[in-house]
From TrEMBL:
Its EC number is 2.1.1.290, 2.3.1.231. Pfam families: Kelch_KLHDC2_KLHL20_DRC7, LCM. Pathway: tRNA modification; wybutosine-tRNA(Phe) biosynthesis. The keyword Acetylation does not apply. This is tRNA wybutosine-synthesizing protein 4. The lineage of its organism: Eukaryota, Metazoa, Chordata, Craniata, Vertebrata. Coiled coil: none annotated. GO terms for molecular function: tRNA methyltransferase activity. GO terms for biological process: tRNA methylation; wybutosine biosynthetic process. The gene is Lcmt2.
Length: 669
């Protein structure tokens, strides 16, 4: 547990070095320096921002009072005191920091040894005494185990804590490491002993979904189990906890809501533009698994730092489920090349599936996957074979987030994709297969470059887009829509490519233009295209569904109204079957459940959500960045790959393909 403080200080320090947070003191306190990934930077940015937002709100509301106090529980190597002191916010406030004795001693030694820090605290005129490892006029650093409440109370009193003046308690990922009886006692003690008090809590939530399982597993492996989660699994339970322990007001937000509602738009844009970034799913999942809580009692004016400055486009109440869909393993275990995400799968002929690209496991290590994989279904069973492409690596480019469109039994087109998020995107390729390509004869797939005019090629450099077959005046076209590029974080343009020679064609399009998006789904339907969901311009999931259909001299966009409204989502897959749009998985901001299968009746607009029953799976099923294939005759959905980097908790790749039987839900409609 003591190690978590040091590691969090290093991550905050790395975020500060990249400009996410302004804090010149972190590098002095963190000790070692390490460059963290952009996803970690964002995670620690939102944490620091939430805590600062609430602390500054407390200081602002109490600035006219003669004296206030802040008690930081489990403060570790945090720089809060130094930052507040540096900008003149502690004129009438004393800060008490509490942590394990050896952590407090290390920090005291650091402060004494550094002019920049000791000068801010002022000369103490002597060493700390006993548990008080450092004592300045407005700063006291105390070494005591938080779970020993009577000892904590005694030492705080000895250090000069006055329970008659307004006091803010801060616990930033601290209480969850304690047994619940002890953390509950601490919450209740603070409410009972301090007539005018506020409490700020930041920690984890939602242990039961796939991301929550990976998160819990990570902390258990570090021997720092998260004790509060079983008893307080969601924001509402945490709110009830505080209200039941003597606090009279309590508001709580998960970090998706905090980012949307409490951070000004220009600041959101600043942070989103600091580094090349393409891990939206993991960012939003991380944010839905952490919350900030502000409780208070006896304050002259209400302490409500979590009042939204804008209203989040949030979905009220839990998502109602119309039923469940059983998930079973497709009998393809032990095939490492299918553990991947950001790949693409396409049905190249009946019951034969080609999977290409993505990031995953190859030759025993995690990397961008080079090999192609073919799956075929025979006598009701899936079989797999690895097909190594016979081309130099650089042409394939080891791409993620590309599309593959089947044009005939022997030909498919690869469009877009990227290597790293800062890359310009990758050009188009032909994939040519032998007529007999199936799992019994792993003949090589030939890959050839597509030569287009440079301007046309440049317009198609994108990823997280969609490429869908449409028909216009009896001719076949590929409709390329949306996505993102190295320069544009979200695109809203489209292009028509006449097949098979891929000539650019101008076709008039009328009607309400859909908002820009990437990571949406697109399906061919009735000669046109159905676009659903996606991530929009402000990194907000979209809940709109559009149909692009042939119309007089061109095409027309038409919005499809769904009822109840479709829960906004992205990174899902989609299929159409007999007038019904099926959306599979994805990421939404609704932390109470994860997206399963949604069925939209395209005639009536009726939208029903079904939960995926994973009782027969022995591992968490992460349904984002996956691919899926629908076999209409069997009403079977084959889900291949999926997963991602779960913040700092490790990479999760779904171990094997999963089969979902949709018979019951498609026949019941």
């Amino acid at each position: 547990v003591q190690g978590t403080g040091g590691s969090s200080a290093v991550s905050k320090c790395s975020a500060a070095a990249r400009g996410y947070i302004q804090d010149r003191f972190l590098r002095l306190l963190a000790g070692r320096r390490r460059r963290r990934a952009p996803l970690i930077h964002r995670g620690y940015y939102i944490r620091a921002r939430a805590v600062d937002h609430c602390v500054q709100d407390f200081l602002l509301r109490t600035q006219s009072l003669p004296r206030t106090q802040i008690v930081s529980l489990g403060a570790g190597f945090d720089s809060l005191y130094f930052r507040l002191k540096d900008v003149g916010l502690l004129r009438h406030t004393v800060v008490y920091e509490v942590d394990f004795p050896n952590v407090a001693c290390q920090k005291a030694t650091l402060i004494k040894g550094m002019k920049e820090l000791s000068a801010l605290v002022g000369d103490t005129g002597g060493e700390g005494l006993g548990a008080i490892t450092f004592s300045g006029e407005d700063y006291k650093l105390l070494g005591v185990d938080l779970s020993e409440l009577s000892e904590l109370e005694r030492i705080l009193e000895e250090a000069g804590l006055n329970n008659e003046i307004p006091t803010l308690f801060i616990a930033e990922v601290v209480l969850t490491y304690m047994e619940n009886t002890r953390s509950d006692a601490l919450i209740q003690w603070a409410a009972e002993h301090f007539p005018r008090a506020c409490f700020l809590l930041y920690e984890q939530v939602h242990p039961e979904d796939p991301f929550g399982h990976i998160m819990q597993q990570h902390f258990s492996q570090l021997s720092t189990a998260l004790h509060s989660l079983p008893q307080y699994p969601d924001c509402e339970a945490q709110q009830r906890r505080f209200l039941g322990k003597g606090w009279t007001e309590c508001s709580v937000m998960d970090m998706n809501e905090f980012f949307t509602c409490c951070i000004p738009e220009d600041e959101q844009q600043r942070v989103q533009g600091l580094e090349p970034f393409d891990e939206y799913e993991e960012w939003h999942l991380k944010c839905s698994h952490y919350f900030v809580l502000a409780a208070s009692k006896g304050m002259e004016s209400s302490w409500t730092p979590l009042l939204p400055s804008v209203t989040a486009p949030r979905h009220a109440g839990p998502v109602g489920m119309a039923g469940s869909v059983p998930a079973v393993c497709a009998g393809l275990s032990g095939i490492p090349g299918l553990r991947r995400y950001g790949h693409h799968s396409v049905l190249i002929k009946p019951n034969v599936v080609l999977t290409t690209g993505g990031f995953g496991e190859e030759d025993g290590q995690h990397c961008r996957v080079r090999n192609f994989h073919v799956l075929s279904k025979r006598a009701g069973c899936w079989e797999a074979v690895c097909v190594t492409q016979n081309i130099p690596d650089k042409r394939w480019g080891q791409r993620l987030y590309h599309t593959v469109s089947r044009l005939s039994d022997t030909l498919a087109l690869v469009l877009g994709g990227r290597t790293s998020p800062s890359s310009v995107g990758l050009g188009m390729l032909w994939l040519k297969f032998p007529k007999t390509c199936n799992a019994s004869g792993p003949e090589d797939v030939a890959v050839e470059l597509v030569s287009l005019q440079p301007a046309a090629e440049a317009a198609l450099l994108r990823w997280r887009h969609s490429t869908t077959e449409v028909t216009f005046k009896g001719e076949q076209y590929l409709f390329v829509y949306g996505g993102r590029s190295a320069l544009e974080p979200v695109l809203g343009d489209w292009h028509f490519l006449h097949t098979p020679e891929l000539s650019y064609t101008e076709i008039a399009v009328e009607g309400p233009v859909p908002e820009r998006r990437h990571s949406h789904s697109a399906c061919s339907w009735d000669g046109g295209v159905l676009i659903a969901g996606g991530l929009g311009a402000a990194e907000q999931p979209l809940g709109s569904v559009f149909l692009l259909r042939e119309f007089e001299h061109g095409f027309q966009w038409q919005a499809i109204e769904t009822h109840p409204p479709l829960v906004p989502r992205y990174s899902h897959t989609a299929h159409v079957h007999e007038g019904k749009l099926l959306l599979v998985g994805g990421v939404w901001f609704h932390a109470s459940s994860v997206p399963g299968v949604t069925v939209i009746d395209l005639m009536t607009g009726l939208c029903l959500d079904y939960v995926i029953n994973v009782d027969h799976l022995e591992w968490p099923l992460m349904l984002h960045n996956h691919s899926s294939i629908f076999l209409p005759n069997e009403k079977e959905l084959l889900v291949i790959g999926g997963g991602g980097n779960c913040f700092s908790f490790g990479t999760h790749l779904n171990p094997e393909p999963v089969s979902l039987s949709l018979t019951s839900i498609l026949s019941s409609h």
